[in-house]
Specification:
Two copies of one chain form a homodimer.
Chain A lengths: L10 H17 L5 H7 L5 H13 L3 E3 L7 E3 L10 E10 L10 H6 L2 E6 L9 E6 L14 E5 L8 E7 L4 E10 L2 E5 L8 E4 L3 E13 L1
Parallel strand pairs in A: 3-5
Antiparallel strand pairs in A: 1-2, 3-4, 5-6, 6-11, 7-8, 7-11, 8-9, 9-10
Helix pairs in contact in A: 1-3, 2-3
Chain B binds a DNA duplex through helix 3.
DNA sequence: CTTGACATAGAACGCCTGTTCGTATACAAT
DNA sequence: ATTGTATACGAACAGGCGTTCTATGTCAAG
C-alpha cells in the first residue's frame, strides 16, 4: 500500500497541522514556512512546502500562493470571531430590586463576557447579560445562578419574554408580556401556571429576554 | 491644538483600522503593510508604518517587529476562536425516547453548532447538544425548544444533573442524580418538587448536562 | 531487480515586506 | 521669524519568505 495515499495524514503532517493550530491560537496569525520548519521539527523549508501542498490537496487547509503566512486552516467546526457576539455581563437580577439597564459606559467596562452565536439571535441590538440570584424566577423556568441575556429595547412586542418591574410588590420578574388595553397580561413561562394581570402604569418594562443560559 | 494628540484617531487611522478588521474577517489573517496601503488608500508604505506605530502607541493594536503581517488588533470584547467551544447539535431529546449518545462520526457530521465560552465549562470533554422537544422536562426547568449541552461521561458524580432513561416508564428525563445503594435518587431541578427513587438497574445514565440554553 | 510513487535534504532564486532615510508641507506656539 | 510637531512622499535597503531544482533515500508492486 502506498504509505499515505488519499486523505490519510502522516505523523509529520499531523504535527505540522497541530503546530499551525497552536501557533494561531498563541499569536493570532498563521506561521511562516520557516516557523513551521523549526516549530514542527521539519528538516527543510522544501519539506514544509511539500507537506503543506499535500495537506491542501486533502482539503485540510487553504493556501494563497506566494503570500507570506498565506494559509488558512479548514476546521469546519471552529467558531470564527465574526460568528460570535460578546455579551457583557453587567449585573445581577433579583426579584427584590430593579434590574440594571446599563448605558454605553457600563457595557464597555464590563469585566466578564458571555459568548453566544449570532445565529441564535433573531434581532440584532444592544445585548447585555444578567446573573439571576435567588429562585424567585422559577415560574419562568429560571433558576438561581442562571444567566439571562437581555436586549435593550424601547418597546416590546406582544408575547415577548421581558423583565418587568412590578411597583406594587417592589419586585422584578421575567414573564411573557401582552398588552391588553390599560392592563398587562403577564404569562409565566411555565405552562402549568396561570397568567395574571397588572395595571400597565404600575409596571415598568426593563428589557427583553433574548436567551437564558444555565450551567449545570 | 495639536491635531491628533493622545488617543484621538485621525480619519486615515480609522480607515486603516477598519481595513484591517475587514481584511482579517475576509481572509483569516492580517494584511501586509502594502495591502493596507492600497486597501485603505494610503500614499506610501512609510505612511502606513507611521500610522501603525501611532495606533500601537494608542493601544489599538499590537505589533511584532519585522514580522510579516505581524499585527494583532486589540479589540477587547471580541471573542477569540480559542475561547469558544463549538458544540455539535446531534439530535433531539424527547421524554418518550432514549436520548442520542453520538459517536465520533456523528459529532463530526453535525450540521449545526452551538457556541459556548470555554470559561463556562468546568470540566473539558466531549460535548454535544440536544434540542428538547415537548414540555416533559418542566420539572428540570427546561422548556420545549431549549438546547441542552451534554457531556459524554462514563460515570457521574453524585449530584450531577444528568439525562436518565427510566426503563419502566420508557422515558428520558433530566434530573439531579444521587447514588444511594441500589437505588438512584432523582431530584428535580425545580426546588418546589420532591425527589423520588428508582432501582439503579432499571435506569440508564445517558449523559451529563453541562449547560441549558433557551432562546426567548 | 527494476520501476515508480512517496519522502527527504540542501541550496539557491527572486519576489515580498517591514523599516528607514532624506526631504517637504502645514500649522500652532514662541 | 523661528521652533517644534504632526503629517506626507518616494526611494532604497536588508532581510524575510515562498518556491523550485537537483540529488538522494525508502519501500511496495510487478
Amino acid at each position: 500500500m502506498a504509505r499515505h495515499s488519499s486523505g490519510v495524514m502522516s505523523q509529520l503532517q499531523e504535527r505540522i497541522l497541530n503546530f499551525i493550530r497552536t501557533y494561531e491560537a498563541d499569536n493570532g496569525l498563521p506561521p511562516t514556512v520557516r516557523e513551521i520548519q523549526t516549530g514542527a521539527g521539519v528538516s527543510s523549508t522544501s519539506m514544509v512546502s511539500y507537506h503543506l501542498k499535500a495537506l491542501e490537496t486533502m482539503g485540510m487547509l487553504a493556501r494563497r500562493e506566494r503570500s507570506s503566512r498565506g494559509l488558512v486552516l479548514n476546521d469546519p467546526h471552529q467558531a470564527s470571531p465574526r460568528d460570535i457576539f460578546s455579551v457583557p455581563m453587567v449585573g445581577v437580577i433579583v426579584a427584590s430590586a430593579p434590574a440594571p439597564t446599563p448605558d454605553a459606559d457600563a457595557l464597555r467596562s464590563a469585566e466578564e463576557y458571555v459568548y453566544i452565536a449570532k445565529s441564535m439571535v433573531k434581532t440584532p441590538g444592544d445585548l447585555y447579560a444578567l446573573r439571576v440570584k435567588g429562585n424567585s424566577m422559577i415560574d419562568a423556568l429560571i433558576n438561581d445562578g442562571d444567566i439571562v441575556v437581555m436586549q435593550k429595547v424601547n418597546d416590546i412586542n406582544n408575547g415577548d419574554l421581558a423583565a418587568v418591574r412590578l411597583m406594587d410588590r417592589d419586585e422584578t420578574t421575567l414573564k411573557r408580556v401582552f398588552k391588553e388595553g390599560k392592563r398587562l397580561k403577564l404569562k409565566p413561562e411555565n405552562p402549568t401556571m396561570s397568567p395574571f394581570y397588572v395595571d400597565a402604569r404600575r409596571a415598568e418594562i426593563q428589557g427583553r429576554v433574548m436567551c437564558v443560559i444555565r450551567n449545570a
